[in-house]
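yo

u said u wanted the structure for the complex thing, so here. seqs first:
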Amino acid sequence: MVLFTLFTARRFSLTTSWLNLLRLLVFICIHIHNQPVASAQDTSSPDKASEPSRSIDILEAEARTARELSYAAAQLRKDLSTCQSRVQSVQKGFQNLYSTHLANVDGLRKCKEGILGAQEMEELEAKLAKLNDKVDPELMAEAQQTEDDNKRRLRYEEIASKHKELILSLENQVKQLRLREKAWERTISELVARRDLLERREGAWERTIGELMGEVEVRAKRESWWEGMKMEMEARIGALSKIGVLERFGPGPHQISVVVDLDDEQDTSSEPKHSEFILELAPVDVMPHSIHLFLSQIAEGYWSRGTPAIVINPGHVLQACPHPCLESASLGGKYSGDPYFEMKKAGIDAVSFQEYNPNYPHEKYTIGLAGRPHSGPEFYINLANNTLDHGPVEQRKKELGARFEDYVKEMFGEDSDDKVLEPDPCFGKVVKGFDVVDKIAERITWGSLPTKGEGGGRLYDHLLVRPVKIVSVSILDAKSSIVDKASNDEL
Ligand SMILES: *[C@@H]1O[C@H](CO)[C@@H](O)[C@H](O)[C@H]1NC(C)=O
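structre next:
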């Protein structure tokens, strides 16, 4: 039995130490087997019991040893068989795993080639299930455990690296936010500085506006003061003019004789043929300043020598100039020639203000001073009712209403101001010699010729082709004219 065990054990290639142990065991077993024969012989031969105590001790000890050895041997046998079954189990386990692997490989191949039917699949699964059953569950569990551990470790590593990434990214974000915060802080401080600047500027503006408003008030006050002053001065000039007129020229009505040379081409006589028309000035209370000015000019003889002539006819007026109008500034000339400069030097060339009286409007055949502001010394005879065009702006506004703006643009151009809207003084009227005036008014202008003027502009177009020379202008004492006088003399 022991031998059999020994051989069986040997067949399973046990280690050399195991073999030696077994050999010792066999030897002991044989020894024990022979022992009962010897002890029987001892008991049967009492002569050998001369040394019973020693031999009994030995025998007892040997027996004890043998029992222990036997026990040890039994234990070893048990261990051996356990070991053996384990080895078998391991072997089988590996065989099962291998077959499972092969079956898997086979299944995989078939699956790849697409030749695995539903039936075969089931069979394969059954086969695998069967094989798995036969693998030692402990080993399977161990393998599973190892695999789980590996997986867990990998997972932990993955999670750890992800955490690291996350932390890095968060750190970056924090850095970015800090940078942004700094930028915002800068922006905010800039804005605060700007706000302060604007507030300071606003304060400065408020101060400036306040100052300007104060200045405007002062100016408005001054303007109204000047306005009052102007009106007072106008009234005084009027009063002084009246005194002047009364002292020098009497109370009027003042009549003026205007003698002109019509230079009639029809008249073949060598004697120049003089024609006359008579003006009567407005009552001295109505237009004192203008009357004083005109009478002074006449009294000084400015209109009775040199270059005065009736030169312009734009249709609505017939204008007389103390200078050849071709040389006037508006025609590019220099206002040269007497008596214009003499008048200017004497300071009686023009009115000091635009005197006007609504009770004496610019109706047909009345006379007015030309040029606004400071009208004079040119004067004109109205050939039509020019009350609206030559009167004060208030009257025009009242009469034209909504059409006023268009009227101003049409009459005076786009950039006209209130100056040109002031009235011309109207201070007398034709009372005799209307036919002479009408004859002069019939004379043609350069603008009416087919060739027109030579590019002299609007005023040039209104120049008479044959100007009418003013021979003399004189104040009549009696209600008679020089023409009448002349004819009387002839008589
Ligand atoms: C002259 O014109 C004005 C203004 O248009 C007008 O009020 C006045 O009646 C006219 N005078 C005559 C005599 O037509």
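The CA atoms of residues 15 and 389 lie 148 Å apart. Residues 363, 385, 387-388 surround 2-acetamido-2-deoxy-beta-D-glucopyranose (CB under 6 Å).
cya
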